[in-house]
Write a structure and sequence with these properties.
single chain; about 120 residues; alpha+beta; Sufe protein. Chain: A; globular
Length: about 120
């Protein structure tokens, strides 16, 4: 059902936690399945220096959150904004069709955190 990579990222997720005084925070959720993702960004000179996440949800939600953080760390904001759920699924080696919505949440969490960062910049 799940690839070895999905299981690895579920059982040993990377970048779990939160960043105090994060530059951007995004939270998204799916009431239908109960998954909630919160992503924290530390940005310096337009580069995502650090990223952490907290996810309440199934194994696929944890794995996609973890993979998404790995994919954007060290990237520019513009590069991170181009990450799609299909790219996250591909990096994980696939997901069962009924779990694709988890990858969509991971993409949305990235976008929400970047949007929060940008709104804070505009208000400074």
């Amino acid at each position: 059902m799940y690839t070895d990579k999905v299981m690895e990222y579920f059982q040993n997720p990377k970048n779990v936690g939160e960043i105090k005084a994060a530059d951007g925070v995004g939270e998204v959720g799916s009431p239908a399945c109960g998954d909630i993702m919160r992503m924290y960004l530390e940005i310096e000179d337009n580069i995502i220096k650090d990223v952490k996440f907290k996810t309440f949800g199934c194994g696929a939600a944890v794995a996609t959150s973890s993979m998404a953080t790995e994919m954007i760390k060290g990237k520019t904001i513009e590069e991170a904004e181009k990450i799609t759920n299909k790219m996250v699924v591909s990096e994980l080696g696939g997901l069962p069709q009924e779990k694709i919505h988890c990858s969509v949440l991971a993409e949305q969490a990235i976008r929400a955190a970047i949007k929060d960062y940008k709104s804070k910049q505009e208000n400074n």
